[in-house]
UniProtKB/TrEMBL annotation:
It holds the Pfam family MEDS. Residues 188-302 form the Histidine kinase/HSP90-like ATPase domain. InterPro entries: HATPase_C_sf (IPR036890), HATPase_dom (IPR003594), MEDS_domain (IPR025847), RsbA-like_anti_sig (IPR047718). The keyword Lipid metabolism does not apply. GO terms for molecular function: kinase activity. It comes from Actinomadura napierensis. Keywords: Kinase, Transferase. Residues 5-146 form the MEDS domain. This is Sensor histidine kinase.
Amino acid sequence: MSLEHRAFVYGGTDHFLAVTEPFLRSGLEAGQAVVAVVREPNLSALRDLFSDGDGIEWVDADGFYLHPVRTLRDYQALVNKFAPRPVCALAEPVWAGWDERQTLEWIRYESLINEVFKDSGARALCPYDRETLPPRIVEQARRTHPVLLSDGPAMTSGDYVDPVTFGAHCDRSRRFGRPADAEYFAVQDDDLHALRSFVAERALLHGLAKRPSQNLVTAANEVAANALQHGLPPVGMWIWRDGPKLLCEIGDNGLWRPAPDPLTGFIPPDSALQQGFGLWTVRLLVDLMELRAGWDGTFVRLHVR
């Protein structure tokens, strides 16, 4: 069964409830596993319309939408948990509190839903508040959802872009710059002990907490090992502070091509042996991973707060 992925552009609480209540009830009537991941005050307003015994799993979106790749993983866990029953999910993304690069990653996440769950038979309705969200976010919903619902009947989105093409556009829109005072470390052989020590020392120097520091060391080690195995020398690493974030970038002279699947590293792998497991793991470890491949080489940038 194929995925039903709709964006719901609403204005005000009454409009929100008028559409989301019957959506959830339709899932219950169809015997589907019904999940509502919604922000307050919409969450409480919607719960008041149902009884505790209705069987809906209620989740506060502010605690669920913390990291796009982890959220993707958690939704996949929900789908697997209820299988073979299809999931009916009211899924309201959280758009507040992100910088420009993180916002782009969340927009890409909405597009990836179409690929990750394409054969799940799930039904997903994603509310977008046109009264509070920036117009750009609402406009992007038309490109990441095949079907739109607003003031009238549901309609096919003429602006929808498939996940592969959409992801390529996201990558091209990134701008990479590096400060002149970024510290450099040359990766000269397969023994990455010195690199791990270098990253750990700089993380401590910049006041990074223990867990994110350990995660950054592990992520940098994985990316450097990948560059040594698949890239072209020289391989190097830069590290610097950018406001509340510590950035670590590993680069080599090769041109990374995500063959055979350009979504490799974004789609949750089935096992550690599957291609893309390393990149997927790196994305889970850090707040944001960006990749740029061009004439001057391939560069992977890791962001950690």
